[in-house]
Amino acid sequence: MHTDVHKTEITRRSLLSLLGWGAFFTTLAISVPASIRFLFPRVLFEKPSTFKIGAPDDFRINGNSEHQVYETWKAEHSVWLVKEKNRIYAVHAKCTHLGCTPNWFPDEGVFKCPCHGSQFNRSGVNFAGPAPRPLDRLKISIGKDGMLVVDKSRVYTFNEFDKQGTYVEV
Amino acid sequence: MKPNKNIWQSIRFSPLFKSIFRHGYDDTKQNKILQIRSNVFLHLHPVKVPAHAMKIRFTWCMGGITFFLFLVETITGILLMFYYRPVPEYAYQDMKYLEFDVPFGILLRNIHRWAAHLMVGTVMLHMLRVFLTGSYKPPREFNWVVGVMLLIFTFLLSFTGYLLPWDQLAYWAITVGTNMIRATPFIGHEGPFALLDKYNDVRFMILGGTEIGANALLRFYVLHIVVLPAAAIIFMAVHFWRIRKDGGISGPL
Fold first, then answer.
1. Which range has the top average pLDDT, A23-37, A38-52, A55-69, B4-18?
2. What residues of chain A lie within 8 A of the CB of B202, using their CB?
3. Would an 8 Å CB–CB cutoff place B210 in contact with chain A?
4. Which chain B residues have a beta carbon less than 8 Å from that of A46?
5. Which residues are registered as beta bridge partners of A126?
6. CA distance B73 to chain A (A)
7. pTM of the model
């Protein structure tokens, strides 16, 4: 008989088994990553990260304060424009604790977050509540047409506040 | 015999009735076993339950109450689905419509909400009871793990349901919750050993974007009504069946 000779030979059963399982795992290896990729959309219907806010001269300090917070873009873009004597910068209206939107209280000169009670002074420095760091700032620059442009995709944390791009001198 | 007894008898012994309910009410040991074992739902359950398992002070009936609340959530949830549309334009309006105009809408919505709150409590109390009676010990250690998964599914069902009213509480609670996901090691873009950015990390996958919008609402809805309940049902079936397979409910200490 041919028992010993045929031991290592591919039988019909082992070939079909190999093909069957091979097809199964190949399908799995393609469809699982494809299904995960499926969950990451290419096009987002979100607001563009860059937007114009007007000319540098549009921003003035009212009264004898040295500091003016503009809330014009807060509702739509979550940004406060802050005008100081010689510069303008954009504060991200997003609590550094867990991302709620704080409110600006001009009389007290304090930003307060309604979610967990974090508070920030007029420069955005945290002094109460669970927030771990001052409010972040966003990239601001003067475009070719002389208008100020805020870019929300570049976020500066407090140790980068002296970097170029965090403020515009006026 | 009275006529209505005859009617009952003719139904009881009709081929149709006997094809559904194969075993009668004979109070014999064999028949009682057959009643349980030939029922697709009851077969998960042990044929016999020891007397101590019926003591409320031993089990607190917390697992049973949790299962009951899950059934309540399923029924009320399916009814709410007939009115609720998971898109930003309609979600809040539909919730208000249910509250103020749909007959019994406010009742169903509140049953759904309160049963959900209760379920989180009872499932944790069930876990506490199992811990206190030592019922997590071998041979029941695998069922403890299945139970922990069910606890997580309960929390996730609660969390995903939280967003659906699409009101301020919903929006900011999910803002806070999903911002925590940023800090996941490796797969969150602000976590330790972050490998990804905010456009391809795990938070992006859950929200379908970088912020809570239409995609996030729809994803939470699908998770809430299909994915998580299906997972919970599968794990519950295993959980109940494992009680029998692991030698029945644990005895008193």
1. A23-37
2. none
3. yes
4. 209-211, 213
5. A120
6. 27
7. 0.85
Evaluate if residue A13 carries a pLDDT over 80: yes
Q: How many domains does chain B have?
A: 2
**Pairwise CA distance, residues A120 & B14, whole Å:** 79
Between B23-37, B131-145, B150-164, B183-197, the lowest mean confidence (pLDDT) is in: B23-37
- From the list B206, B213, B163, the residue with the least C-alpha distance to A45 is B213
**Lowest mean pLDDT across A42-46, B83-87, B164-168, B202-206:** A42-46
Do B205 and B82 reside in the same domain of the chain? yes
What is the b/e burial string over B62-95, where b = at least 16 CB atoms within 10 angstroms of the residue's CB? bbebbbebbebbeebbebbeebbebeeeebbebb
Q: ipTM of this predicted complex? A: 0.79
Short-list B176, B171, B170, B157, CA closest to B222: B157
Q: What percent of chain B has pLDDT over 70?
A: 98
- Structural domain of residue B21, as residue ranges? 1-39
- For chain A, how many residues are written? 170
Q: Burial of B135 by CB count in 10 Å (0-12 exposed, 13-18 middle, 19+ buried)?
A: buried
Give the Cα-Cα-Cα angle B151, B156, B122 (nearest 5 degrees). 40
Enter the tokens of residue A95. Answer: 């609590």
How does residue B230 score in pLDDT terms, banded at 50, 70 and 90?
very high
User: Is B45 contained in some domain?
Assistant: no
B95 and B192 fall within a common domain: yes
Question: What is the topology classification, in CATH, of domain A50-169?
Answer: Rieske Iron-sulfur Protein (2.102.10)
Chain-wide mean pLDDT for chain A?
90
Q: Cβ of A46 and B175 within 8 Å?
A: no
Give the SS3 label for residue B145. helix
Task: Return the H-helix or E-strand segment holding B194.
Answer: none
